[in-house]
């Protein structure tokens, strides 16, 4: 499919958000959130199509993110600027396909136009048990030579499976299984929400 | 070769889907250890003298568990196909399908059935 159609569609999304929120910080936040929701699903397509397997260190992850950029945006960013601790790196885009045909007007200087990418990366990483922070440190739309996205590894997310699974079994022995299945688990955007919902969620299941 | 049933679990161990083709309630004596064939690929299998269980787990922790008779082959490929061609296409690509709730899409169930019935490992008669 033509990349231009995508670029223009994204452009109208950003324009619409600017109209709806009238505040660039809110638009930045919304874009990140939408990206997060996309990333949660996109990771499955990436795993299915590229079959990359699990990551064993962050350099491995960086390579796979590079691979994903190639697959979904048709660009090959370079990976670099590792910090001494090895838990932070940059993705450098010579050209940003999302920001083609774009010029930021003066009142939008605070806008992180491609912020959806930050959300996508965060959402996708979270689905493979990695909490990361993602932010832009250089943007061609703001006069920088390249577009640079910084990624910092925060922590590995642990599974909370065994306890919940046992409770579900106990419950399904006394109640019809549909009630077990329908019980809502987390659907929050942030991991803090998710963690704070967990105890409540499992307590609900034992009842 | 016969395919018995399939379970799909999400990352929290919640069951997303159950499908059944042939059900024979037999457990049998365990003949082998549950030993990972290749951890990197997330595939694991064990066998009793009555059936064989195959587990395929994606890096995103979605689990596909398929029970077959003890001699079925090519199941690893079938599970991968179920993930890429059925789960991803009919659940992940469907914005109306929540990812952490049991799957209600009929299209998904129909496509799953089709893929399993077309697989070489499927035979309508129990062995």
TrEMBL record, chain A:
List the subcellular locations. Endoplasmic reticulum; Golgi apparatus, cis-Golgi network
Q: Which UniProt keywords apply?
A: Endoplasmic reticulum, ER-Golgi transport, Golgi apparatus, Transport
Positions of the UniProt region annotated as Disordered: 169-207
What GO cellular component entries does it have?
endoplasmic reticulum; Golgi apparatus; TRAPP complex
CDD domains in the record: TRAPPC3_bet3
Q: Where is the composition biased (Basic and acidic residues)?
A: 190-207
Which InterPro entries does the record associate with it? Bet3, NO_sig/Golgi_transp_ligand-bd, TRAPP_component
Its family remark reads: Belongs to the TRAPP small subunits family. BET3 subfamily.
The protein depicted here goes by the name Trafficking protein particle complex subunit 3
The encoding gene is: TRAPPC3
TrEMBL record, chain B:
- Annotated compartments: Endoplasmic reticulum; Golgi apparatus, cis-Golgi network
Q: Name one GO cellular component term.
A: TRAPP complex
User: What keywords tag this UniProt record?
Assistant: Endoplasmic reticulum, ER-Golgi transport, Golgi apparatus, Transport
Q: Name a Pfam family for this protein.
A: Sybindin
Kindly report the protein's main subcellular placement as a broad class: endoplasmic reticulum
Might you name a Gene Ontology BP term for this protein? endoplasmic reticulum to Golgi vesicle-mediated transport
Q: Which SMART domains match?
A: Sybindin
Question: Could you name the domain of life of the organism this protein comes from?
Answer: Eukaryota
What does the sequence similarity comment in the record state about its family?
Belongs to the TRAPP small subunits family. BET5 subfamily.
- Subunit arrangement? Part of the multisubunit transport protein particle (TRAPP) complex.
The record's PANTHER family line, in alphabetical order, gives: TRAFFICKING PROTEIN PARTICLE COMPLEX SUBUNIT (PTHR23249), TRAFFICKING PROTEIN PARTICLE COMPLEX SUBUNIT 1 (PTHR23249:SF16)
Identification of the protein by name: Trafficking protein particle complex subunit
Name the species this protein comes from: Chionoecetes opilio (Atlantic snow crab)
The record's gene field reads Trappc1
């Amino acid at each position: 499919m033509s990349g231009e159609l995508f670029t223009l569609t994204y452009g109208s999304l950003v324009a619409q958000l600017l109209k709806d929120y009238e505040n660039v910080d809110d638009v930045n936040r919304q874009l990140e959130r939408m990206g997060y929701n996309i990333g949660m699903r996109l990771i499955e397509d990436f795993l299915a199509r590229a079959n990359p397997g699990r990551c064993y260190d962050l350099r491995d992850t960086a390579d796979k993110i590079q691979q994903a950029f190639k697959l979904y945006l048709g660009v090959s960013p370079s990976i670099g600027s590792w910090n001494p601790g090895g838990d932070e790196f940059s993705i450098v885009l010579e050209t940003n396909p999302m920001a083609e045909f774009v010029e930021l007007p003066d009142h939008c200087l605070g806008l992180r136009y491609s912020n959806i990418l930050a959300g996508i990366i965060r959402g996708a990483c979270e689905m493979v048990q990695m909490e990361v922070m993602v932010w832009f440190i250089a943007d061609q739309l703001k006069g920088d030579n390249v577009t640079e996205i910084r990624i910092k590894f925060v922590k590995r997310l642990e599974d909370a499976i065994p306890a919940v699974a046992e409770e579900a079994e106990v419950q399904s022995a006394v109640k019809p299984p549909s009630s077990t299945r329908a019980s809502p688990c987390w659907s929050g955007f942030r991991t803090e929400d998710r963690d704070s919902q967990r105890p409540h969620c499992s307590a609900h299941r034992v009842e | 070769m016969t395919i018995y049933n399939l379970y799909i679990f999400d990352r929290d161990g919640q069951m997303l889907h159950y499908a059944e083709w042939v059900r024979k309630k037999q457990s049998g004596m365990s003949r082998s250890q549950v030993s990972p064939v290749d951890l990197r690929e997330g595939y694991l299998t064990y066998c009793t003298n009555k059936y064989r269980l195959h587990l395929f787990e994606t890096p995103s922790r979605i689990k596909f568990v398929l029970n077959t008779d003890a001699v079925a082959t090519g199941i690893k490929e079938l599970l991968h196909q179920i993930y890429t061609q059925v789960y991803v296409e009919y659940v992940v690509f469907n914005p109306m399908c929540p990812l952490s709730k049991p799957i209600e899409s009929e299209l998904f169930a129909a496509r799953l059935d089709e893929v399993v019935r077309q697989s070489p490992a499927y035979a309508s008669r129990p062995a």
